[in-house]
Amino acid sequence: MRAHEAGALHGDIGSRGPAWLRTPEDVNALLPGLWPRSVARGADGAVAVAGLSVRDIAAEFGTPVYVLDEADLRSRCRDFRAAFPTEDVFYAGKAFLCRAVVRMIAEEGLHLDVCTGGELATALSAGMPPERIGFHGNNKSVAELGRALDAGVGRIIVDSFTEIDRLTALALERGVRPRVLVRVTVGVEAHTHEFIATAHEDQKFGFSLAGGAAANAAFKILDEGVLELRGLHSHIGSQIFDASGFEVSARRVLALQAQIRDARGVELPELDLGGGFGIAYTTQDDPATPQDLAKRLRKIVDSECAAENLAVPHLSIEPGRAIVGPAVFTLYEVGTVKDLEGIRTYVSVDGGMSDNIRTALYDASYSATLASRASTAQPMLARVVGKHCESGDIVVKDEFLPADVQPGDLVAVPGTGAYCRSMASNYNHVPRPPVVAVRDGQARLIVRRETEEDLLALDVG
Ligand SMILES: Cc1ncc(COP(=O)(O)O)c(C=O)c1O
Questions:
Q1: 50 burial level (CB within 10 Å; 0-12, 13-18, 19+)
Q2: pTM for this prediction
Q3: What is the pLDDT of residues 204-261, one digit of tens each?
Q4: What does each C-alpha distance from 459 to 193, 429, 430, 452, 453 come to in angstroms?
Q5: Alpha carbon nearest to ligand 1 atom 4, residue
Q6: Which terminus of the chain, N or C, has fewer Cβ atoms within 10 Å?
Q7: Nearest CA to ligand 1 atom 16
Q8: How far apart are the CA of 320 and the centre of ligand 1, in A?
Q9: pLDDT band at 199; cut points 50, 70, 90
Q10: Crossing angle of helices 142-151 and 117-125, rounded to 10°
């Protein structure tokens, strides 16, 4: 065993982590592309966002805390708007939704997708113009659909024959003509770098293209004439880096568009290609820019429309993760550091799977840094874990942290804006952390911390 300045247990024993993870030359370096754009280390070595030190954020709001770089989020909205100037960009609210974020994306000219009554209520209460809201979901209730109609949402993405009947009845009752898209299961399942053209029909979302249900749904809506069929919708997955999945999807969905034209003489004016654009969680990930995506998607749609002799429909996309994911990091306080001789070092923080379920749920990879100070210690391979009663309660599976990391230090995990707070739970009765937006050196609470009183208030027994 080689001597190590932080002790034998920090040496090159045990797991070396995944092959892609390199020992950093500078353990204090903030890897480019992973952090919100205004994040840098201050003169004292602590991480700062928009000029505000994480030490100040922790002192004022406590930990764990989700820290949102507001300018970063807004700039990602602008990047998408600039790349898709004639298209509609729907922010997928499921990634993270609260009223402040609704206002930010509305001010930046985006539309908004919701998929439950709760998300719809949040959007409306923040003043999102209803005509800019799209309503998704495979099991929207009658009450939810009724609310959407009463609010005047811009479009409803229908997902089943039952839903078409429900919505038709509600529209007739109200004397309205809701605009709808048909969600098509195109038979492409995309995950990160790969897409698999089998086993895709076996899922709960949408109408199958291959089985003919998608065409029948479109025919039913057109023939009944109660709902206004605006177009087709396809969403092929999440955290996608390879545009070839979109290519296959666009080709198939535009072939259906041509089939509908040939059968009913109607060219649907809209096409939604969904979201799922990947972001960088670690150095393994190399996401495309919105400009690249726009170029590729337009090229695909233009050439497929030319091949099918179709007018190019009005396009929309639905990025969630790519807008909010990189704009947020989670700040934790270290509680214990446990060296398991010959195995690995566990750094326990004051949150865990209740504020970030993605590692346990999807085997997701994250990065982390010692945020409250810079260190001169050697890099040490660590696993950042939470405080929950599950051995799978892992926040960051493998990361190099300075070997002198200790209780009381703050550790920050970037890329936690999407599907972390929105999927947070109260497991082990751990109250969910707050969300703090930072802009021009000022921090503002946008979602407060849950308290034990909140938890007990629901427990009426
Ligand atoms: C229909 C639809 N649109 C958009 C999204 C957003 O995906 P992402 O946040 O990966 O961009 C999802 C995510 O599940 C989705 O189901």
A1: buried
A2: 0.94
A3: 899 999 999 999 999 999 999 999 999 999 998 888 888 888 888 999 999 999 999 9
A4: 45, 12, 14, 11, 10
A5: 275
A6: C
A7: 235
A8: 6
A9: very low
A10: 20
**Residue to mutate (ligand 1; options 97, 111, 235, 241; most atoms within 8 A of CB):** 235
How far apart, in whole angstroms, are the C-alpha atoms of residue 277 and residue 240?
5
* Cβ atoms of 272 and 316 closer than 8 Å: yes
- Strand 39-41's sheet: what is its strand order? 39-41, 47-49, 52-53
Provide the token pair at 273: 């290609």
Q: List % helix, strand, coil for the chain (3-state, nearest 5).
A: 30, 25, 45
Q: pLDDT digit string (tens) for 311-328?
A: 999 999 999 999 999 999
Question: Would you give the DSSP letter of residue 106?
Answer: H
For ligand 1, is residue 238 a contact (CB within 6 Å)?
A: yes
Q: Which two tokens stand for residue 387?
A: 């405080």
Q: Which two tokens stand for residue 171?
A: 């529209």
Contact 322, 76 (CB under 8 A): yes
Q: How far is CA 82 from CA 37, 77, 109, 177, in A?
A: 18, 9, 10, 32
SS3 370: strand
Q: Is 333 in the pocket of ligand 1 (CB under 6 A)?
A: no
CB atoms near residue 106 (< 10 Å): 19
Atom of ligand 1 nearest to the CA of 157: 1
Token readout for 219 is: 């025919």
CA of 92 to the centre of ligand 1 (A): 6
Tokens 């300045």 belong to residue: 5
Two structure tokens written together for 346? 């566990």
Distance 47 CA to ligand 1 centre (A): 31
Ligand 1 within 6 A of 418 CB?
Answer: yes
